[in-house]
Amino acid sequence: MWFAPIFITVLALFGASTAQWTENMWDNRNTIVHLFEWKFSDIADECERFLQGKGYGGVQTSPVNENAVITSGTFRPWWERYQPLSYEIITRSGDETAFSDMVRRCNNVGVRIYVDVVFNHMTGNWGTVYGTGGNVGYSDSKSYPAVAYSSYDFNGDCGITNYNDADNVRNCELTGLRDLNQGTDYVRGKIVDFLNKLISLGVAGFRVDAAKHMWPGDLAVIYNSLNNLNTDHGFASGSRPFLYQEVIDLGGEAVSASEYVGMGRITEFRHSAEIGRVFRGYDQLAYLENWGTGWGFVDDGNAFVFVDNHDNQRGHGAGGDNILTYKTAKQYKMAIAFMLAHPFGSTRVMSSFYFEDTDAGPPADSNGNIISPGINDDETCSNGWVCEHRWRQIYNMVGFKNAVKGTGINDWWTNGAQQIAFCRGGSGFVAFTNGGTIAQTMQTCLASGTYCDVISGNLVNGACTGKTVTVGDNGYGYVSLSDSEDDGVLAIHVNAKAS
Q1: 354-392: pLDDT as tens digits
Q2: Which of 159, 137, 117, 120 is nearest to 69 (CA)?
Q3: H helices present in 301-436, as ranges
Q4: Which residues are catalytic?
Q5: Burial environment of residue 380 by CB neighbours within 10 A (0 to 12, 13 to 18, 19 or more)
Q6: Mind listing the pLDDT tens digit for each residue in 411-455?
Q7: Strand, coil or helix: what is 273?
Q8: Backbone torsions φ then ψ of 192, nearest 5 degrees
Q9: Closest by alpha carbon to 231, among 24, 46, 48?
Q10: Alpha-carbon distance 240 to 157, whole Å?
């Protein structure tokens, strides 16, 4: 009852601004890459040596504040990062000095930083808990002196058992994690102080973990208390932090994504689940013609989309076996190519480490220190890191998305089944096959010339290292694409013209 009037009041304050839906990227950049569990120093290096040159717009980091140390030695579960012990910036990724240096270096080359922030809860009930920064918490009595939180700052000991009961979802513990009460000024103040510190250090926005498990009215108060972005890092005066909120909504539950769209973007898990179904062959590519709201997603301006994330690639969260990951590489690259070729939503790609055990953390030495990714001569990674963002088929589609910015879809073509093609204005053309061969002249919407297929190769010194498409004066070109090829995609654009 108490929450409704707060919600209405705060939404009114947001009504005149769309800034919290805007990524705050440089004009010639797009797409966030989640460098999952990377060290801050390695992220800074990656911004400078790779991301800026490939057109990536930003990096999502793993949570940066002190977390519980669940185990010692080489095996440290990835999910310990989602068990905060304090709001001090110190994790296996580095300390505050390293974080600040990373943000500065990335901003200097036009790659923005978005922090995955966890403030729905603190740690699980492990008794006395030791943190990555040396602080101690007492989870059994809900005491976290380094914040400082006491038992008065938490909801009850109930666990979430009924997703058809909004009170249970938002006021009880998610998988045993000590549930903070964001309805109090004190808790809100601690959260706001933490987020504003990150803003002062130059971040561009936040992924809000477990937003579904917090009352929208409480979140609105927190968001409205955030400072504008730091102009010392190149942000325009008055810029607001970009917000994308984790709300898993596949329908049929008490909590709906529609309750959160007034405050920022929504992580659209239906996009992840459905794009996996399509490119696994369970639906036809022809059905993608009305992709987006036609499939029941939140609208374009509120959608934050992805093919997989750190949770559902491990079978957690929404989507089940439909989710595509690096382990199903061909279909995965096709799905990402479609996501980046299509204008719907704000986009993020995943960058993973190899795993078999779904609890396993990143590659580490015997002391639990994260091992840096190795960089191979062909730009791929080693040392146990997948680095999907360095796969040619993915980074070149980031370039495609840059090339077609500001255009819509036109000249849609399909064989009525598992083959589609479309233009993006007069700037780009893409074709897909998930069954059979495309071998015909098609409208590419591009000016005459020879274009490099950026899926099979690159444009290097004016020549194509992969397939080519020659376009005539009428915009038509011969397209050849077989489902037996390594990739079921062909893409050309104005910035990949060889002659």
Answers
A1: 999 999 999 999 999 999 999 999 999 999 999 999 999
A2: 137
A3: 329-341, 392-403
A4: 209, 246
A5: middle
A6: 999 999 999 999 999 999 999 999 999 999 999 999 999 999 999
A7: helix
A8: -60, -40
A9: 24
A10: 36
